[in-house]
Amino acid sequence: MSSSGSLNPQSESFESRPTFYIGQHDSTRSEALSDDQYAQVLNSGVSPSAVSLRAPVLGRGGADQEQFRFVTAPITNRHFFDRVVKLHRDYLREREEWVQQRGLTASQQANPSLPGPVVPTLTDEDTSLFPSNYIGSLAAYASPWIDLCSPDPHVSSLSRQVLNLEAAYANFCGARTIIVPGPRQDDSSRGIAQYARAIREALNVANRANIIIHMPMYREPGLEEKAETLSTIFGPENGPEAGAKKEIDLFSAWDSWNTIRSMCNYSMRLFVGMLLDHLGPIQGGGRCFISAADLYTAIRIPRRVPEKALQERWFAEPLHYLTIGAETFQPNRAGHPSLSKHHQDMINRYMRLRNPPWLILCDVGPRPEELAVLPDPTAAEFPSLAEANQALRENRRPHMPSLNAHVGYMKHLERQQPPFSAMETPALMSFQDWLQPPLQPLADNLESATYEVFEGDPVKYDQYEKAITEAMIEWKDLKKPTSTATPENPSSPELVVTVAGAGRGPLVTRALRAAEKTGTPIQIWALEKNQDAFVYLLRKNRLEWNNQVTLVKTDMRGWEGPRLKGREDVIGKVDILITELLGSFGDNELSPECLDGIQRHIARPHGISIPHSYTAHLSPISTPRLFADLSSRVVSDPNAFETPWVVRLFAVDYVAQKVPGHPRFQQAWEFVHPVEVARADDFAAQHGKAAARYVTGGVGSMSGAGGTNEHNARHCHLTFVCPTRGVIHGLAGFFESVLYAPQAGAGKEPVEISILPDQIDRKSKDMISWFPIFFPLKVGFFRFPPSRDTKLDLQITLCRRARSTSRRTQNSRSACGGKQMTERCGTSGWWRYTPGLGPRRESRSARRISTAAARWPV
């Protein structure tokens, strides 16, 4: 009988949660598992209720019931290790013979061109890993005894040769994951560079396999790896104990990883896994179905979970695995294994990623002696009474390993996760850290499907309706005059409402609903330049709005104004102007320029614009995933780093810290509507409306234009406090908007919307109409505080420039560390974007960046 409740998929109250994909690793395993052993590991501890008594041994039970889903396997065995050690010893003996027999001097012995040891190809005695039908479910791991960072050139050369041989053979066998032990020390920049070069070679050798770099989260004293390496065998002074530091540097391991992936050119094949263990080399599992060679990392987390800043730093990396050792589990009151609350919180956090990491349990069984005794299928079907009774007490099938307590706890933890929220639907999670080209609604006519996506966000339109309702209520309370008033009827209550840029009409519907709710009579106009959407509006007006709406097909900037009903010969004014021109950076869809062209129709001084104001905000971020994605696009899209991208930022590290006077998210500038004094309107009134289109550029304004759009130029200089070292890959842009600011009644809250991470839940929870905008840096800006006790001030300058002659808007920005300029955003020069023409490269002397539409498309 199926259970009921939120954990039963067949129940109506079922709540979806992230799924744990669990693998098994044994650090003492020196041989790959046989087919029967592999099946025994997968089935170890499978609940009897999930397995048919007559099911085949391999692959029985549903995938969601299996305890282990994949297993690790060493590429080579002890025989190969002994052969490499003997090879190097023979080589050292041969060098001594050169001195004795050939009389080499000290300078001749130091000649780097002398031949070194060469590892011959593998033989069938060196490995027990062979192609099989389940090779894709095995995670091959390289020999933990190699030392790619060794200062001994012969040891590092042997290690590099071994890695290439193993990577090539695992790639041949069809393995999709290869684990490589990471650097054991971080203080040797030369050693880390050697390591990175070896990994680049391995990537070329294993061109169809993922490469996992095993790294600790940080170097915790007393919990270093104890594995025997070639360095400890042939030069104990070069082992991991040599030169060990007493002072803990939490970010030293991340520094090594950053060097490795930087030397690999931020390849899209760089990902991160995490090991929750404190000693012993770990070899993790891998994903399948990836055609190109990939480079990942596996991170070892000590028993004491580090501070939040380091957790967020690794979370921003391309996380791929969480690997948990037996020593990380702590017994609970009942004696069963469990994880600390800090470990649970970290796992729950990482499992919310679009591609959640897989879990690898290390040294938790089944034990090697259990695998040595294979079950007898006949005996399993006909157990003795004693065997059946013992299996019943241990909640397992006869002649099968006991239930794995560690796996059972992880399944329990899986069920205890918070269910997916409204913002974690599969559709929304698919947008995590996915770069989308910005929309250009002013230059392009959007498709119906794009409008439909926007209309699917009820939060935004609920806030708009609330703002319109508040405006109508206060209009009555303040006894404001209306634009429909005449000498014959000076107290006419009918408001003139205009929706500019109506799209498919969602704001029109909300305005009509607000008018009905407040009992306010209105004359409503809807403007739309998209001729295709205008057809849809005509149909909707006839079928849904009862022809209450006056539709006008026009660009709002060229609209002549409302012709009031009953007085068509008179062009009136607008009482409430409603628009939704906001972009991810507030003004980047040219809302200020568009509203400048229509605000002359707003009744003064009592006319209202919804939105009333909006602000742009910035914060520097570290986002290796997006930087790697952009780096891979440059070949086909040279403008990749010169385009502002729309992206639902998730796996990012907000590098700035909130301190007094310097928040993490800082305001760049603000726009307020309507503007009481408009230079363009004054010019048109003096010289005629048509004359404004032929204004020639001057030299006095900021952009060399005529100056009629100079009021929309903005400039800011922001200082962010960065407490830890790291890499800044770009700037994250957000916006907030006050849709309606109350004009009556003290203490009334304004109606607002926001996409700021620290404000969205308070002002517009679960709003999805806008994702943040990302301004990338072509070269990552590495920040390094001068000392451990000091913090780096990151200074960012951002300018918004506008040209009145071509309706062109540009942004320019720069990033500084302290007082010295270190990087210009975008490229070595700056760039700009012109709506309708697409991004284009500017000369370095131009040094301009522009904005683009920043909504998220379908």
Automatic annotation (TrEMBL):
<dbReference type="GO" id="GO:0005634">
    <property type="term" value="C:nucleus"/>
</dbReference>
<keyword id="KW-0949">S-adenosyl-L-methionine</keyword>
<feature type="site" description="Critical for specifying symmetric addition of methyl groups">
    <location>
        <position position="454"/>
    </location>
</feature>
<dbReference type="GO" id="GO:0006355">
    <property type="term" value="P:regulation of DNA-templated transcription"/>
</dbReference>
<keyword id="KW-0808">Transferase</keyword>
<feature type="domain" description="PRMT5 oligomerisation">
    <location>
        <begin position="613"/>
        <end position="782"/>
    </location>
</feature>
<dbReference type="InterPro" id="IPR029063">
    <property type="entry name" value="SAM-dependent_MTases_sf"/>
</dbReference>
<dbReference type="InterPro" id="IPR035248">
    <property type="entry name" value="PRMT5_C"/>
</dbReference>
<feature type="active site" description="Proton donor/acceptor">
    <location>
        <position position="589"/>
    </location>
</feature>
<comment type="similarity">
    <text>Belongs to the class I-like SAM-binding methyltransferase superfamily.</text>
</comment>
<feature type="domain" description="PRMT5 TIM barrel">
    <location>
        <begin position="68"/>
        <end position="276"/>
    </location>
</feature>
<keyword id="KW-0489">Methyltransferase</keyword>
<dbReference type="GO" id="GO:0032259">
    <property type="term" value="P:methylation"/>
</dbReference>
<feature type="binding site">
    <location>
        <begin position="460"/>
        <end position="461"/>
    </location>
    <ligand>
        <name>S-adenosyl-L-methionine</name>
    </ligand>
</feature>
<dbReference type="InterPro" id="IPR007857">
    <property type="entry name" value="Arg_MeTrfase_PRMT5"/>
</dbReference>
<feature type="active site" description="Proton donor/acceptor">
    <location>
        <position position="580"/>
    </location>
</feature>
<dbReference type="GO" id="GO:0005829">
    <property type="term" value="C:cytosol"/>
</dbReference>
<feature type="binding site">
    <location>
        <begin position="555"/>
        <end position="556"/>
    </location>
    <ligand>
        <name>S-adenosyl-L-methionine</name>
    </ligand>
</feature>
<dbReference type="InterPro" id="IPR025799">
    <property type="entry name" value="Arg_MeTrfase"/>
</dbReference>
<feature type="domain" description="PRMT5 arginine-N-methyltransferase">
    <location>
        <begin position="428"/>
        <end position="610"/>
    </location>
</feature>
<protein>
    <recommendedName>
        <fullName>Protein arginine N-methyltransferase</fullName>
    </recommendedName>
</protein>
<dbReference type="InterPro" id="IPR036237">
    <property type="entry name" value="Xyl_isomerase-like_sf"/>
</dbReference>
<feature type="binding site">
    <location>
        <position position="451"/>
    </location>
    <ligand>
        <name>S-adenosyl-L-methionine</name>
    </ligand>
</feature>
<dbReference type="Pfam" id="PF17286">
    <property type="entry name" value="PRMT5_C"/>
</dbReference>
<dbReference type="InterPro" id="IPR035075">
    <property type="entry name" value="PRMT5"/>
</dbReference>
<dbReference type="GO" id="GO:0016274">
    <property type="term" value="F:protein-arginine N-methyltransferase activity"/>
</dbReference>
<feature type="domain" description="PRMT5 TIM barrel">
    <location>
        <begin position="295"/>
        <end position="415"/>
    </location>
</feature>
<feature type="binding site">
    <location>
        <position position="528"/>
    </location>
    <ligand>
        <name>S-adenosyl-L-methionine</name>
    </ligand>
</feature>
<dbReference type="InterPro" id="IPR035247">
    <property type="entry name" value="PRMT5_TIM"/>
</dbReference>
<dbReference type="Pfam" id="PF17285">
    <property type="entry name" value="PRMT5_TIM"/>
</dbReference>
<dbReference type="Pfam" id="PF05185">
    <property type="entry name" value="PRMT5"/>
</dbReference>
